[in-house]
C-alpha cells in the first residue's frame, strides 16, 4: 500500500465553483474574494478579514502595519516554518528565537520573558499543528509590556481557545490556505483583526499601495482614477482561490471531523506504548488536527527518528517532520548567533517527532495500515 503524507480534499462543489468563476469573466480579486473575507471573518469572530495570496504575506502585512521596522526585535518560537521568521527580516527587524514547551511544542510566556528586550516590538505565537498557544497569558503579558501579538495561525482553521475561535484574539491573526493546510485552496492566506484601521492599511498594502478597493476601478461602480499612497505589494488573492475557499468552508466541519476520527484512532493505538507518545492537547483548546505529530522514544529503540521514517517510507507510508527548528537552518543560525544547545526542548523534540498522514480522504484501511506499520517498527526495533 502507498499512503501519501497529504492529499487535498477536493469536492465536486469546488470544481463547480471554479468553473462558475471562470465563466463569470472575473478571475482576480473581486466579488468572491469579498464574500470569502466576510464569511471567514464571521466564522472566526473577527471584525475584519483581508484575503491575500499566502500566510507569509499576511504575516508580513501584519507586522508592517503594526509598525515593526529596522532595529526592532520580534520573538518567534523555534518550532515553526521559516515563514514566521523571514517576514521579520523583510522589515529590517531581527527575529529572536525562543525554545518551546516540550509537551505542546508551543511558545510560553516564560520563554518570551527570557528573550524580551527594550527593542522587542512584537511576538508571533505559532499555534503548532492547530493547537493554540496560551493566548490569555501571552496577551496579558504583551499588553503589560506594550508588545504587539501577531498569531501565526497557518494550521488553525478551525481551532478554538477557551471556546473562542482563533482569529479574533491577537492584534492580527494570519491563516494559510497552502496546498497541505486544512482548506484545499492551493495557495492563499487571510489576515484577521478587530482593528479597522489595521485592516484598511493591510487592504491598501496588499495591492500596490493603491487607495482602498483598487480592484473596483475595473467594475461598473469604479472609476479609472486612483492614487498610490504607499509602496505596496502584489499580495492580493484571486477570485478563483476565493471560490475554492468558499466551497471548502462549506465542508470544513466535516473535514475536521474526519481528521479528528483519524487522530482518535492513532491515539488509541499508540497511547501507552513504551516507545511512542501521542500529541498532548490541553483541555481548554480544540485543535484543527492539521498535523498529527507522533513522538518516538529513542531510549527504548535501537533506531533513531530518521531511521524510523525510512522504515515507514519502505512500507509506503509518507511522513514529514514539523519542524526543523529555525536555529538549525544556516541562515538563522548565523543571523541570531545561537547554538542548538540553547534550545534543549526543541532539540529533544527534534530527535523524536514524526508527522503521520492525517488527511480527510484517508480510508479506514489506510489508517489501519499506518497504525500496523508504526507498531511493527516500534516493536521490531525495541531495545
Ligand atoms: C505553512 C506555514 C506558513 C506559511 O504559509 P503560506 O500560506 O505558505 O505562506 C507559516 N507558518 C507556518 C507555521 C506554516 O506551517
Describe what this molecule looks like in 3D.
The chain has 383 residues and is of the alpha/beta class. Helix content is 38%, strand content 13%. It contains 13 helices and 13 strands. The longest helix has 19 residues, at 252-270. It is globular and about 75 Å long. Bound molecules: pyridoxal-5'-phosphate. Pyridoxal-5'-phosphate binds next to helix 3 and helix 4. Pyridoxal-5'-phosphate (PLP) binds at residues 54-56, 80-81, 83-84, 126, 152, 154-155, 176, 178, 189.
Short descriptors:
single chain; 383 residues; alpha/beta; seven-stranded mixed beta sheet; three-stranded antiparallel beta sheet; 13 helices; 38% helix; 13% strand; binds pyridoxal-5'-phosphate
Topology:
Elements: H1 12-24, H2 31-43, E1 48-52, H3 55-65, E2 73-77, H4 83-90, E3 94-98, H5 109-115, E4 120-123, H6 135-145, E5 148-152, E6 160-161, E7 164-165, E8 172-176, E9 189-193, H7 196-205, H8 239-250, H9 252-270, E10 276-277, E11 285-286, E12 292-296, H10 305-314, H11 330-336, H12 344-350, E13 353-356, H13 364-380
Parallel strand pairs: 2-3, 2-4, 4-5, 5-8
Antiparallel strand pairs: 1-9, 6-7, 6-11, 8-9, 10-12, 12-13
The structure holds pyridoxal-5'-phosphate.
Low-confidence stretches: none
Total beta strand runs: 13
Helical percent range?
Answer: 25-40%
Largest sheet: 7 strands, mixed
Could you tell me the mean pLDDT? 97
- Summed up, the helix count is 13
> What is the N-to-C succession of helices and strands?
HHEHEHEHEHEEEEEHHHEEEHHHEH
Tell me the strand percentage band: 5-15%
Q: Rg from C-alpha positions?
A: 21 Å
Major sheet: arrangement of strands = 1-9-8-5-4-2-3
Q: Which kinds of small molecule does this entry bind, naming each only once? A: pyridoxal-5'-phosphate
Shape: globular
Q: Indicate the structural class.
A: alpha/beta
Amino acid at each position: 500500500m502507498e499512503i501519501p503524507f497529504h492529499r487535498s480534499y477536493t469536492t465536486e462543489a469546488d470544481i463547480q465553483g471554479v468553473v462558475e468563476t471562470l465563466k463569470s469573466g472575473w478571475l482576480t480579486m473581486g466579488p468572491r474574494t469579498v464574500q470569502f473575507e466576510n464569511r471567514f471573518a464571521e466564522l472566526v469572530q473577527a471584525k475584519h478579514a483581508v484575503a491575500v495570496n499566502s500566510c507569509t504575506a499576511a504575516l508580513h502585512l501584519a507586522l508592517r502595519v503594526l509598525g515593526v521596522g529596522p532595529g526592532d526585535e520580534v520573538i518567534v518560537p523555534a518550532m515553526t516554518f521559516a515563514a514566521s521568521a523571514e517576514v521579520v527580516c523583510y522589515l529590517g527587524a531581527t527575529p529572536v528565537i525562543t525554545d518551546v514547551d516540550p509537551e505542546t511544542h508551543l511558545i510560553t510566556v516564560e520563554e518570551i520573558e527570557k528573550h524580551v528586550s527594550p527593542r522587542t516590538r512584537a511576538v508571533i505565537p505559532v499555534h503548532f499543528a492547530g493547537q493554540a498557544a496560551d493566548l490569555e497569558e501571552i496577551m496579558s503579558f504583551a499588553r503589560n509590556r506594550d508588545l504587539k501579538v501577531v498569531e501565526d495561525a497557518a494550521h488553525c482553521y478551525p481551532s478554538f481557545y477557551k471556546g473562542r475561535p482563533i482569529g479574533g484574539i491577537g492584534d492580527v491573526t494570519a491563516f494559510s490556505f497552502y496546498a497541505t493546510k486544512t482548506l484545499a485552496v492551493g495557495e492563499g492566506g487571510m489576515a484577521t483583526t478587530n482593528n479597522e484601521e489595521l485592516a484598511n492599511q493591510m487592504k491598501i498594502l496588499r495591492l500596490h499601495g493603491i487607495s482602498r478597493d483598487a480592484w473596483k476601478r475595473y467594475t461598473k461602480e469604479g472609476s479609472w482614477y486612483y492614487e498610490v499612497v504607499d509602496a505596496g505589494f502584489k499580495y492580493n488573492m484571486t477570485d478563483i482561490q476565493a471560490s475554492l475557499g468558499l466551497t471548502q468552508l462549506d465542508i470544513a466541519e466535516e473535514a475536521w471531523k474526519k481528521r479528528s476520527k483519524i487522530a482518535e484512532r492513532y491515539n488509541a493505538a499508540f497511547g501507552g506504548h513504551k516507545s511512542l507518545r501521542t500529541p498532548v492537547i490541553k483541555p481548554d483548546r480544540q485543535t484543527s488536527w492539521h498535523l498529527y505529530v507522533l513522538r518516538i522514544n529513542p531510549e527504548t529503540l535501537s533506531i533513531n527518528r530518521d531511521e524510523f521514517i525510512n522504515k515507514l517510507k519502505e512500507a509506503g507510508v509518507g511522513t514529514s517532520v514539523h519542524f526543523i527548528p529555525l536555529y538549525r537552518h544556516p541562515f538563522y543560525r548565523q543571523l541570531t548567533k545561537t547554538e542548538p544547545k540553547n534550545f534543549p526542548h526543541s532539540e529533544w523534540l527534534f530527535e523524536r517527532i514524526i508527522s503521520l498522514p492525517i488527511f480527510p480522504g484517508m480510508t479506514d484501511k489506510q489508517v489501519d495500515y499506518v497504525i500496523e506499520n508504526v507498531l511493527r517498527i516500534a516493536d521490531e526495533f525495541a531495545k
